[in-house]
């Protein structure tokens, strides 16, 4: 019995090279050139976003609010947003970023009504990938730490990948 290749991000077959990388390499083989992101995105570039914790951002399971604090999934959302803000100014017009990894260690609570500041700092930068270290703070308290990874693709390649999914 034959087994299908496992499916990677967005349902693209992952053959060990990675569906995304394979699609990009395929595009390059067809003679389509790709350019790196704009200059200036280097380790140390930072962006931040702040938000006030609302009841709707708290953990709610089976219709019941469990705690009146910021849910981990809310923190993850803002961590990804902060990482995106690091990237966005450096994308060329024909490029787009796609989140491929996020990790979050939720360390202390942020009660409803408190302000959380999430800061992303570029850690590793290549022409097709950005890794950011991320920290979420409530005043002087570290609420969470983590990491985000975004892959950068030519829009045409991304459109084809999403169409084939």
Gist?
With 165 residues, the chain is an alpha+beta fold.
Number of helices: 3
CATH architectural designation: Roll
Mean pLDDT over the residues: 85
Number of DSSP E strands: 7
Distance between the terminal alpha carbons, to the nearest Å?
A: 24 Å
**Class by helix and strand content?**
alpha+beta
What percentage of amino acids are in beta strands?
A: 35-45%
| Spatial strand arrangement across the major sheet | 1-5-6-7-4
Count of discrete structural domains: 1
3D shape: globular
Write structural notes for this entry.
- The structure is a single chain.
- The protein is α+β, with helices and mostly antiparallel strands.
- It has one domain: Thiol Ester Dehydrase, Chain A (Roll), CATH 3.10.129.
- Helices cover 23% and strands 36% of the residues.
- It has 3 helices and 7 strands; from the N terminus they run H-E-E-E-H-E-E-E-E-H.
- The chain has a 5-stranded antiparallel β-sheet with strand order 1-5-6-7-4. The protein has a two-stranded antiparallel ribbon with strand order 2-3.
- A hairpin with a 2-residue loop joins strand 6 and strand 7.
- The radius of gyration is 18 Å and the shape is globular.
- The two termini are 24 Å apart.
Describe the protein's topology.
Elements: H1 19-29, E1 46-52, E2 60-61, E3 64-65, H2 72-88, E4 95-106, E5 115-126, E6 129-138, E7 141-154, H3 155-164
Antiparallel strand pairs: 1-5, 2-3, 4-7, 5-6, 6-7
